[in-house]
Amino acid sequence: MALLRLAWWTVRSRRTDFVGSFIAMVCAQALVTACAVLLESGARAGAATGGPDVVAFAVPFGFISLFVAAFAVAGTFSLCVQQRTREIALLRAIAATPRQVRRMVAYEALVVTVAALLPGCGLGVLLAAGLRAALAGQGMFSPGFRLDFGPVSLASAAAVCWVTAEAAVWSSGRRAARVHAMRALGEAATPRHRAGWVRTAAGLLVLGGGVWGLESIADSPGSSSDVNAASGMVMVFMVAVALLAPWIGRLVGAGFGGLCKLLFPGVGFVAGANLGTGHRRLASAIMPLALTVAFAAVSLFVPQMKWREQHRQDSERMVADHIVTSGDGLPADAARTVRRVPGVAAAVGTTSTYAKVLTGEDDAHRGPGGIAQAVTDGPLGRVLDLGATARGAEGAAELGAHDVALSEGLARAAGARTGDEVRLLLDDDRVERVRVAYRYPRGNGFGDIVLPQRLAARHLMDGETLGQDTVYVRSAPGRERAVADGLATLAKGRQAAGWRVLDRAAYAAEARHRQDASMTVTYLLLAVITVFTSISVVNTLVMTTMERSGEFALMRLVGATRRQIGRMMALENAVTVLAALLLGSAVAGAVLAGCARALTGTARLDLSPSVTALIVGGAGALALATGVITTRIALAQRPATALRAPG
């Protein structure tokens, strides 16, 4: 209890040192609480009020929020402990044991977590309510969905944030506490320049795993799950960057520090020296800004890349004049019914299912899989041009009873060539030996496997019936008007069943509407996360600058002017911002190139210059403005007052 009282007294007496950690913890509590509230409310809600949709939204959002919150909390708490190395060294010098120091630091994290609990949870509930209202307005949530949560959500969020804070201070507290008591003050005055070999090895291992994972995903079939996994690799790379932060700080400090000395004689020499010796502080300032740039770029550009590629393939693939759909599904004889409309040259029904191509002889060995389209008999090539390369669209139209077609990406992942016999695992977990009739490149937004509907019908679960999702219709030459009128009459007669007839323009407009709704959700989530990471950027830069108030006071007492110190800090801030933007852009570029390869087969990026400039310029302007304002605040103190400040 004595250490807990000491931690409480330390936090109360050094509020300015812990305010950054408190702000980070409040934001983390808000994000994690919002996700927990939505998740519990979705789990309690039934399917009629959209509970499964809420859970499907809350799980990935919660995962991303947890990662960003952990990153920010870990950075601010570690920086707070690092700034108090001299104080901890004094405790070691008066016989405090390493275990006592570690426990005191852990108690300080507990005190800050408890202090942030009430405002963080309150903001989290408000954020959850705002997300519910915004997403319900976009049609993503049912209007009947209401927040319904109990203490479990709040307690879980608080526990997650506390564990995150303790994990953040564990490494820093351990590093500060393990120094020999007689050497403690010396190490406090001269920060260690050597990074731990365990941390370095872990960083290199995570970095290598990220590169390997990205390469594997880039060579995958390019389905939505593959692209989402590729975009998630930004988290892996940022973990590697955080582990290697001391080395990054040293490289940036040495490289840019030498450049400052060369280009700016005088003030550049002082700035270069500070960058070289304060590499840990430099790394702490770089990390949140690099995370903001990398995460914002990946979150914004990956959905755009997916929709752009899907729109391109949809446009090239669509040969049908009309598309018949229904929100409740079409009956099994829908294609046959449509085919009887006068003037219809071809009508092919499709049903979405899932299948895997087994790559081993053992049935338990799973291979690559994806969305499969079970198609009715008929000339598929007359309604959909899949770009089949082996036998041509028309020749590939008819599939035999044991024939399938594979997308180029899935065929490549399975090692299957045209004419090969492969083993297909279907819905009922039974294996069917089939022949690859052809491969096609235009599967994005359609499916990775095409198989006969009569083959899929043999593998239904008990009690299931095989209906149809969509019927693609092609008119005979010169009969377009007659077919349109006939389909309109047919849909009117089936109005109770929800039949809808769309032409190509209406079908494309509906796809654009889905894209707009999806991008609205993306923008909303991006705004929430970006606000949090921006707060983290400002928080960290304020902490690293205000820490140096005593240093600024000493420089002024020995003759440096406020203008000279301001120029020095402007140069250091410019180096920090430039290094962070380069690092974040490198991570984002690697991930986006992997996503592009998975989608299009090439790593060439086609990014909007204006959006790119907005992300990079906005992050850079925020960091530079924060550095300038904080430096002016620090220099506004009288030197004697700054030197009397604790720390």
Walk me through what this model shows.
By secondary structure, this protein is α+β, with helices and mostly antiparallel strands. The chain has helices at residues 2-13, 15-44, 51-83, 85-93, 98-137, 151-177, 184-189, 197-218, 224-243, 245-263, 267-277, 279-317, 334-339, 408-414, 453-457, 480-493, 504-546, 549-557, 562-600, 609-635, 639-644, and strands spanning 322-330, 344-358, 369-375, 403-407, 421-425, 431-440, 449-452, 468-475, 499-503. The chain has three domains: 1-190, no CATH class; 196-317 and 508-647, no CATH class; 318-507, no CATH class. It contains 21 helices and nine strands. A six-stranded mixed β-barrel has the order 2-3-7-4-6-5. The radius of gyration is 30 Å and the shape is elongated.
Label this structure with key terms.
single chain, 647 residues, alpha+beta, six-stranded mixed barrel
- Tell me the total number of β-strands: 9
- Strand content is 5-15%
Helix content: 55-70%
Structure annotation, total helices: 21
What is the 3D shape? elongated
Report the mean per-residue pLDDT as an integer.
Answer: 81
Number of domains: 3
Terminal Cα separation, in Å? 25 Å
Identify the strand order in the major beta sheet.
2-3-7-4-6-5
Q: Report Rg.
A: 30 Å
**Largest sheet entry:** 6 strands, mixed, barrel
